[in-house]
Amino acid sequence: MKRRKLSESTSLDLSSFMNLMVVLIPVLLASVEFSKIATIDAKSEMDRLANGKPSSAMDSTGMLKATILTSDSTITVGYATGFRETIRFRASKNSSDNGTVVAVNATGTPIEALYETTSGDLLTDSTGTAVAAISKGIPYWKNGDLNGLSLRDTIICEKRPLRAIDQLASHLRAVRSKAVHAKDRDDVTIGSDSSVVFDLLVQCMDAAEMSGFENLAFAKIRQ
Fold first, then answer.
1. Which residue from 185, 168, 184 is spatially nearest to 176, judged by alpha carbons?
2. Entry pTM
3. What is the distance, to the nearest Å, from the Cα of residue 142 to the centroid of all Cα atoms in its chain?
């Protein structure tokens, strides 16, 4: 005689899993650092920043208001008192420089700068601007770090294409080192439009963090 197998209906008990989620979700949310997101009106922002280059990046209230505006061909840095730096760039033609953008001049020619041979650090002047030649007796700094030791003409260096992100980081570091009393010394807003590739945005974020700007806010540029 054949025995007929009886199928028993089983119900899945999710109570343990749900209890875990009730405990886990608040813990995960508490560990997330939410970023400020806003919209920047490109024209009004340009008007606000287009006030020349005063000696201090801070305004009379002690605010720095560091802002990085990115597009598909430029990185512009502004502060409470005006523009301080505009970096033109294009993608590197060197296949080994994956995702690297090099600084170019107004005609599109790559800019060359001095890098220390051993460390690969960028040499800059007191404003954080990359230098292409060394003058005897003139001090220089590594990566715009004005708090570090100044260098003289004895340093061993070589010319390389200037990476746009190196120039951005050096500029930010130099300005921040001078804005010791800024109330928002650790804050920077990074604005971009839809033409900016995500990798460039990440590189700008890395440059800001390496320069000491720990609090990043993000904004979409409205044309």
1. 185
2. 0.73
3. 18
**HEC readout, the chain:** CCCCCCCCCCCCCCHHHHHHHHHHHHHHHHHCCCCCEEEEEHHHHHHHHCCCCCCCCCCCCCCCCEEEEECCCEEEEEECCEEEEEEEEEECCCCCCCCCEEEECCCCCECEEEEECCCCCEEECCCCCECCCCCCCCCEEECCCCCCCCECCCCCEEEEECEHHHHHHHHHHHHHHHCCCCCCCCEEEEEECCCCCHHHHHHHHHHHHHCCCCEEEEEEEEC
- Relative to beta strand 215-222, strand 37-41 is parallel
Confidence of residue 33 (pLDDT cuts 50, 70, 90): very low
Q: What radius of gyration, in Å, describes the C-alpha atoms of the chain? A: 25
Tens digit of each residue's pLDDT (9 = 90 or more) over 57-102: 888 898 999 999 998 899 999 998 888 889 999 887 665 555 689 9
Joined tokens for residue 10: 């089983």
Digit-coded pLDDT (tens) for 184-214: 999 999 988 888 888 888 999 999 999 999 9
